[in-house]
Design goal:
It contains 13 helices and 32 strands. The protein is an alpha+beta fold. The chain has 3 domains: about 350 residues, TIM Barrel; about 80 residues, Sandwich (Immunoglobulin-like); about 130 residues, Sandwich (Jelly Rolls), CATH 2.60.120.260. The strands form 8 sheets. It has an 8-stranded parallel sheet. A 6-stranded antiparallel sheet has the order 14-15-16-21-18-19. Helix 5 packs across helix 6, helix 6 runs parallel beside helix 7 and helix 10 packs parallel to helix 12. The longest helix has 17 residues. The chain is globular and about 80 Å long. The chain starts with 5 loop residues before the first helix and ends with a strand. The N terminus is likely disordered.
C-alpha cells in the first residue's frame, strides 16, 4: 500500500469491490475508564537528530523475485520473517548504527488483503501473519537491542467505518460517524480511506487512540502513508496536513516517543508543514520496481538525482528528506550492477537520507556488506555537515559537494550516462584554487595532491566519493547582476522582482528563444573559468551557455526549492583577457530565472 503501482492498487481495488470487510462485533466493548487509561508522560527529546538507519519489509514484500512471496503477492510479511530479519540486523549491522525494524503495509490484512480491525475501528494484526499479535513482536525486537516500526495509511479505512456505529477508544460519546465528513469523502493516495474531519473533536480522539495503541504495543516508529498534498493527488480531499498535525499531537500525549515518517512523493510546497509536524518525509515515489528484482536503476533509483536537490535545504536535525529504501546488499536480487549499487548508496549517504535497507539481511553478499558497513560513508550520512547538492550545471556527468566543519569538502562524482565517461571536480567550483589533497572514501585510499582539479574515469552509472582538502588559497569573485542596464535582453526575457535575489531583482521569462547576455565581463587573463551562476527554478531546467558568440553548451540546472529560492552552481566557460559576453539562451525550451553570475579573480 505505497505507490500507485498496479500490483498494490489492484489488490486494494479488488478487495473493496468484493466487499471484503471485517464485521464490527455486535456487542461493542465499553470505552475504558480514566483509571484504565495509560498515564501520560512527556516524550523523550532527540528523535531523528540524525537520519535513522535500519530495515524495512516492503522491498521484499513487493518483489516478484523467485521464492520471496510463495503464498501470493505481499505474503512475505509474517512475524517469522520479520524476526528473522531482526536477528540478522542485530548480528550484522547493529554495530554500524542500523537499529529500526520497520513493518510495512499489510500487517492487519491477510493474503487476500482482507483486513482485521478491533472493536474501536483500529487496525488489528492479521492472525495468519502475526499470530501472537504486534506487541510480542515489538518485545522481541527490543530484546535484540533494536527499535520497532509500524505502518498505517492516512485516514479512516473504509472497511473500519461500520456504518458509522463503531465507538472510538477512550471517547465514550464518539463513533466513526463523528470523525469523518458526512458525505464520506475519500482521501489518501489510493482513496482507500474516509477523510477525517478535524473540526469535529472526535477525529482527534480517534488518532489519539491509534497512537495510544502503538505506544501500548511498544512501537518506536510510525510510517504514515498515502499522505497529501502529494502522493500524486491534489485538492482539499487529499490535503492531510491536519492529519499529520493530529498525529504529532497524539504522539506527544501517548507516553512513548515515536518517530513519525510521512510518505510518499510529498508536495514540496508543504515542506514547512512536514518539517513542523514530522521527523521525515518521502520526496519521491517508491524505489521498488514491482518486478522480479527489488529495484531497477531505471525505475526510480536514477530519478532521485533530479528530485533530491530541491529538497536539500529542508533537511536537518529532527527531520530528514527520505529517498526510500537503499537496496544494495543482495547482488542479483537487487537488480543492479556493482557500479549502480555504489552510486545508489553514495547518493543516499551524501543527501543525508535515512539509511534503511529492504534487502534480505540473511543473505547479503560480500560487496553488499562492504557498501552497508563502510564507516566513513556512514559517518558522512550521520555527521553534522549539511546534505550535499550539485555544484555544477552539467548533464549526465555530475559533481555534488558539501563543506565539512574542518574546511574540507565531501565531493561525489557521478556518471549517470549509459556509457563510461570521465567526470571532473574543479577546485574553482569549491571556492579555492591551486592544490587539493584527495582521499577516496569508498576505497579508504589517499590518492595524493592534485592541482586545479581531479578527474576520474567512471563506468556507466558509476561514482566516486572523495574528501577534498584545500591546499591552495581561496579567491575572490566579481559579481554581475542579471538585471544590470549594461546587459542585453532579447525575446521574452524581462526583469522581475525577487526578494531573495542579491539585488532584489532577476531576469526571467527565458523561454522559446529568449536570451540574457551579460556584457563587459572582464578578466585580466585568458583561460578557463568556473563561474558561479545564481538562479531560481522550481523544476529542473536547461539553458544553452556561450561566451563571445562562440558555440553554446547545453546544460541542466537542478531545481531549487521553489520559484523564490536562489541556489548556485558553477558553469565552465572560456574567457579572453579583457571584456567578454556570456549568454544564457533558452533555445526552444524554458530556462531558469537568473539572479547574477560571479567570475573568479584568480
Amino acid at each position: 500500500m505505497r505507490s500507485p503501482s498496479y500490483p498494490v492498487r489492484a489488490v486494494l481495488v479488488l478487495a473493496l469491490a468484493a466487499g471484503l470487510t471485517t464485521a464490527v462485533p455486535a456487542a461493542m466493548a465499553a470505552a475504558p475508564t480514566a483509571e484504565q487509561a495509560r498515564p501520560v508522560t512527556p516524550p523523550a527529546a532527540g528523535v531523528a537528530q540524525k537520519p535513522f538507519m535500519g530495515w524495512t519489509s516492503w522491498s521484499m514484500q513487493s518483489s516478484k523475485y523467485p521464492g520471496l512471496n510463495p503464498d501470493g503477492d505481499y505474503s512475505y510479511l509474517t512475524e517469522k520473517n520479520v524476526l528473522k530479519q531482526a536477528g540478522a540486523l542485530a548480528s550484522k549491522l547493529k554495530k554500524y548504527g542500523y537499529e529500526y525494524v520497520n513493518i510495512d503495509a499489510g500487517w492487519w490484512r491477510d493474503t487476500a488483503w482482507k483486513p482485521e480491525f478491533d472493536a474501536y475501528a483500529r487496525q488489528a494484526p492479521d492472525p495468519g501473519r502475526f499470530p501472537r499479535g504486534m506487541k510480542p513482536v515489538a518485545d522481541d525486537i527490543h530484546a535484540k537491542g533494536l527499535k520497532a516500526g509500524i505502518y498505517l495509511p492516512v485516514g479512516l479505512e473504509k472497511e473500519a467505518y461500520g456504518e458509522g456505529h463503531v465507538p472510538v477508544f477512550g471517547a465514550a460519546q464518539c463513533t466513526t460517524a463523528d470523525i469523518v465528513y458526512p458525505d464520506l469523502r475519500t482521501t489518501n493516495g489510493w482513496d482507500s480511506s474516509y477523510k477525517l474531519d478535524f473540526s469535529r473533536p472526535c477525529a482527534q480522539k480517534y488518532v489519539d487512540s491509534q497512537a495510544q495503541m502503538f505506544a501500548d504495543w511498544g512501537y518506536d516508529f510510525l510510517k504514515l502513508d498515502g499522505v497529501g498534498p502529494g502522493s500524486f493527488k491534489n485538492g482539499d480531499n487529499y490535503d492531510n496536513v491536519a492529519d499529520v498535525a493530529a498525529w504529532q499531537k497524539a504522539i506527544a500525549t501517548a507516553g512513548r516517543p515515536l518517530h513519525l515518517e510521512v510518505s510518499w512523493s510529498l508536495d514540496i510546497n508543504h515542506a514547512a508543514d512536514w518539517k513542523k509536524y514530522t521527523n521525515g518525509w518521502r520526496i519521491d515515489t517508491d524505489v521498488e520496481c514491482y518486478c522480479n528484482t527489488l529495484v531497477s536503476w531505471e525505475n526510480s533509483v536514477n530519478d532521485r538525482f533530479d528530485d533530491a536537490p530541491k529538497w536539500t535545504r529542508f533537511a536537518g536535525p529532527g527531520g530528514w528528506n527520505d529517498l526510500d529504501a537503499v537496496d544494495v546488499g543482495n547482488g542479483e536480487m537487487d537488480g543492479l550492477t556493482k557500479a549502480e549499487r555504489q552510486s545508489y548508496m553514495t547518493l543516499w549517504a551524501i543527501a543525508k537520507s535515512p539509511l534503511y535497507t529492504g534487502d534480505d539481511l540473511t543473505r547479503l553478499d560480500d560487496y553488499g556488506v562492504s557498501l552497508l558497513t563502510n564507516k566513513d560513508v556512514i559517518a558522512i550520512n550521520q555527521g553534522s555537515a549539511p546534505p550535499a547538492r550539485p555544484i555544477t550545471a552539467t548533464g549526465s556527468q555530475q559533481v555534488w559537494a558539501a563543506k565539512n566543519a574542518d574546511g574540507s569538502y565531501t565531493v561525489a562524482l557521478f556518471n549517470l550516462g549509459d556509457t563510461s565517461a570521465a567526470v571532473t571536480a574543479d577546485w574553482q567550483s569549491l571556492g579555492f584554487t591551486g592544490h587539493g589533497k584527495v582521499r577516496d572514501i569508498w576505497n579508504q585510499d589517499d590518492l595524493g595532491t592534485f592541482k586545479d582539479k581531479v578527474t576520474q574515469a567512471l563506468p556507466a552509472h558509476g561514482s566516486r566519493l572523495l574528501t577534498v582538502t584545500p591546499r591552495g588559497p581561496l579567491f575572490e569573485t566579481t559579481a554581475y547582476e542579471a538585471e544590470a542596464e549594461a546587459n542585453t535582453l532579447t525575446g521574452n526575457a524581462s526583469v522581475g522582482d525577487c526578494g531573495m535575489c542579491s539585488g532584489t531583482h532577476k531576469v526571467g521569462n527565458l523561454y522559446q528563444g529568449a536570451k540574457l547576455q551579460f556584457n563587459e565581463v572582464t578578466v585580466t587573463r585568458a583561460g578557463t573559468y568556473m563561474i558561479d551562476v545564481s538562479y531560481i527554478s522550481g523544476d529542473q531546467r536547461p539553458a544553452r551557455v556561450s561566451t563571445n558568440g562562440n558555440g553554446a553548451t547545453a546544460l541542466k540546472f537542478p531545481a531549487t526549492a521553489d520559484w523564490g529560492t536562489v541556489e548556485t552552481v558553477t558553469v565552465q566557460v572560456t574567457l579572453k583577457a579583457g571584456a567578454n559576453t556570456i549568454t544564457f539562451d533558452s533555445g526552444d525550451d524554458y530556462a531558469p530565472d537568473i539572479d547574477k553570475i560571479a567570475v573568479p579573480r584568480l
